[in-house]
Amino acid sequence: MKMYDLINKKKKKETLTKEEIEFMVQGFTNGTIPDYQMSAFLMAVCLNGMNQEETAALTVAMANSGDILDLSQIHGVKVDKHSTGGVGDKTSLVLSPMIAALGVPVAKMSGRGLGHTGGTIDKLESFPGFSTTISTEQFIQNVNKVKMAIVGQTANLAPADKKIYALRDVTATVDNLSLIASSIMSKKIASGSDVIVLDVKTGSGAFMKSYEDSLALAKEMVQIGTIAGRQTFAVITDMNQPLGKNVGNTLEVIEAIETLKGNGPEDLLKVSITLASYMLIGAGIAKDVEEATEKLYQTIENRSALDKFAEFISAQGGDSKAVYDTGILPKASIEEEVGAPVSGFITNIHTDEVGMTSLILGGGRETKDSIIDLSVGIRLHKKLGDYVNQGDSLATLYANDSSKLQEAKQRFLQAYVIGSEKPVTPPYVYAVVTKDGVLQV
């Protein structure tokens, strides 16, 4: 078998076998297949596509290229959730303790953020002493005892995906549905959970800007997960404006805590409850969304989710007092309001620009080596459909550098569009994709 022949086969729009895809992934991972040949293959895929069987084979081959996390020592049905990324997305911090409080094990590997805001791991490091690098043995022990643990991804988790993605990033081969789906799902399959719930964002702040593209990606990933033997659900949620009101690492932690106390914004709560509902259904704890929703709201009302969050923070070395007193968490030295330049309705929010504002303040990474300032960010006071008078505060910016603050303020003003007519606001949740089809919400 030769890589040249596989490139030529895909160039001619022919279908590759499972064995051919495994040969290619293994060869590229161990260095016997060079970058230039893999680059040629990736471009052929972008031009000619892959069918579902090829995509599933690529996913499994990438998952098997490194460590497969063995969670067999964890009691019960293990659940996990993955988001395709957005601005203000802190759902993992809300839903994980709710699920754990109901006795369902959440064994989660998360990444660091690269872009406008930090990832779940970065946010959790807002808690003094919190460790995301505990051993596999401690990880399993914590999940069995606390019912949740969140750690950083190991270096040898789906290494083929890391190598392939690095090539895609510099060869204009990122935006192919099969390559996107296999990249996401290879890491989820390697992470070892039984149930995978995917939060597929759609809109101006999402990777997939249109609903149609988001739906296609959701279907592809559910198909892959099902073929791989995992219960997989995908929930398509809105990202035409930031989720919740806080953007920035510590600010998002504070908002997650407020949500667990019952004081959170409606959109964050609704999206978190919907995602968590399908995690409970997959785990067999609830027969339908109505029953799951009722159980989840009870964890907020009786404070068991909040207490579970504190227990989780403490189990990984963090100061759990900060869950009950968020004043302990890092705080920026400068606060400044951004006033509305004119009167009218918020008709559009360029969500990516809000994210870039956070990046300018220091809340994200431009490169993998960038140091995040956990305390900076944005608190939004107005969202889509709200009316503002000229001079009303659109948001508060939190900074530690006055020069970055002025640049961020100008960038933020580019994000908001103010007009005379009140817009139709998008739903929080559009649809749910299961192995049996699409459910409109």
TrEMBL record:
Top EC group: transferase
EC code: 2.4.2.2
InterPro entries linked to this entry: Glycosyl_Trfase_fam3, Glycosyl_Trfase_fam3_N_dom, Glycosyl_Trfase_fam3_N_dom_sf, Nuc_phospho_transferase, PYNP-like_C_sf, PYNP_C, Pyrmidine_PPas_bac/euk, Pyrmidine_PPase_CS
SMART domains: PYNP_C (SM00941)
Annotated GO biological process: pyrimidine nucleobase metabolic process; pyrimidine nucleoside metabolic process
A Pfam family this chain is assigned to: PYNP_C
Catalysed reactions, semicolon-separated: uridine + phosphate = alpha-D-ribose 1-phosphate + uracil; 2'-deoxyuridine + phosphate = 2-deoxy-alpha-D-ribose 1-phosphate + uracil; thymidine + phosphate = 2-deoxy-alpha-D-ribose 1-phosphate + thymine
GO CC field: cytosol
Coiled-coil regions, chain positions: none
Matches recorded under PROSITE patterns: THYMID_PHOSPHORYLASE
Entries under Gene3D superfamilies matching the protein: Nucleoside phosphorylase/phosphoribosyltransferase catalytic domain (3.40.1030.10), Pyrimidine nucleoside phosphorylase-like, C-terminal domain (3.90.1170.30), Transferase, Pyrimidine Nucleoside Phosphorylase, Chain C (1.20.970.10)
Keyword terms of this UniProt record: Glycosyltransferase, Transferase
UniProt domain Pyrimidine nucleoside phosphorylase C-terminal: residue ranges: 345-419
Gene Ontology molecular function, alphabetical: 1,4-alpha-oligoglucan phosphorylase activity; thymidine phosphorylase activity
DNA damage recorded as keyword: no
PANTHER family (alphabetical): THYMIDINE PHOSPHORYLASE (PTHR10515)
Chain's role: Catalyzes phosphorolysis of the pyrimidine nucleosides uridine, thymidine and 2'-deoxyuridine with the formation of the corresponding pyrimidine base and ribose-1-phosphate.
Family affiliation: Belongs to the thymidine/pyrimidine-nucleoside phosphorylase family.
SUBUNIT field: Homodimer.
Protein name: Pyrimidine-nucleoside phosphorylase
Species in which this protein is naturally found: Variimorphobacter saccharofermentans
